[in-house]
Amino acid sequence: MPATDHEVTVRRNDDAGRYEVWVGDVLAGFTEFTPDARGRQRFPHTEVDPAFRGRGLAQTVVAEAMADEARRGETVVPLCPVVVKYLEQNDVPGLDVHWPSRTAGSR
């Protein structure tokens, strides 16, 4: 029974427009998504409950969200700093990423 209390799972919640990370039966955090005018999935915000910080749950929920978006053939627009950092540091096979314009663009 204690093992289930600490089991970490990620679920997509379409009604809330987010991927949620659960520790046992407790919602520990989420990363939000919303389609833009072109149908791309914008990821503006990631949040983890302070009681669950320091466990890597933000990385966990973002990693699973990006893998799921790749499986769905979606284009992701990373706006949240957590999502941006994850995508800069990790390759997600099959994921189409549309980087927002940056002020000091490198060409």
Structure write-up:
The protein has helices at residues 2-5, 57-72, 81-89; strands at 8-13, 18-23, 26-35, 41-48, 75-78, 96-97. It has a six-stranded mixed β-sheet with strand order 1-2-3-4-5-6. The mean pLDDT is 92. By secondary structure, it is α/β, with parallel strands linked by helices. The protein is built from three helices and six strands.
According to DSSP, the number of beta strands is 6
Shape: globular
**Helical/strand content category:** alpha/beta
SSE arrangement, N to C: HEEEEHEHE
What value does the average pLDDT take?
A: 92
Spatial strand arrangement across the major sheet: 1-2-3-4-5-6
> Major β-sheet, in short?
6 strands, mixed
What's the assembly state of these chains? single chain
Binned strand content: 25-35%
| Total number of helices | 3
Q: What Rg do the Cα atoms give?
A: 14 Å
How helix-rich are the residues, as a percent range? 25-40%
pLDDT under 50 segments (min length 5)?
none
How far do the termini sit from each other? Answer: 55 Å
Domain N-acetyltransferase: 11-100
Protein name: N-acetyltransferase
Tag the structure with descriptive keywords.
107 residues; six-stranded mixed sheet; alpha/beta; GNAT_YJDJ; 3 helices; 27% helix
Provide a concise account of the structure shown.
This protein is an alpha/beta fold and 107 residues long. The protein contains 3 helices and 6 strands.
SSE blueprint and pairings:
Blueprint: H1 2-5, E1 8-13, E2 18-23, E3 26-35, E4 41-48, H2 57-72, E5 75-78, H3 81-89, E6 96-97
Parallel strand pairs: 4-5, 5-6
Antiparallel strand pairs: 1-2, 2-3, 3-4
